Task: structure prediction
Amino acid sequence: MVNLSDGEWKIMNVLWEKERGTITELTAALQEETGWDKHIIITMLNRMEKKGAIAYKKEGRAKMFYPIVPRGKVSMQETRGFLQKVFRGSLGMMVNAMVEDQALSGEEIQELYDILEQAKGRKNDP
Result:
């Protein structure tokens, strides 16, 4: 189980998108959004390596970092944790809160219907 901080998510998203990156590349990719310098990136990469989220290979003088956990697995873990923490594990409570807050567009409601119809179809398959 890999538990990522908000900042670590930013780095992981870059690594998942680009598949790998050096400290210099990661710093450049995140500079505008975060303002982080290479020392902050290095500190976070070290933590992420200890957590088992990333690894690196030496390529010349540079370290090439890459993710070793799949985005889908970490995203699902984070989603389950959020759902449990905020809505006591109830997906219905979460959707109801969004409906009550009028946070869902018509397009998003249709997307939810489509997802539920697909799930219903899979449940009926032998």
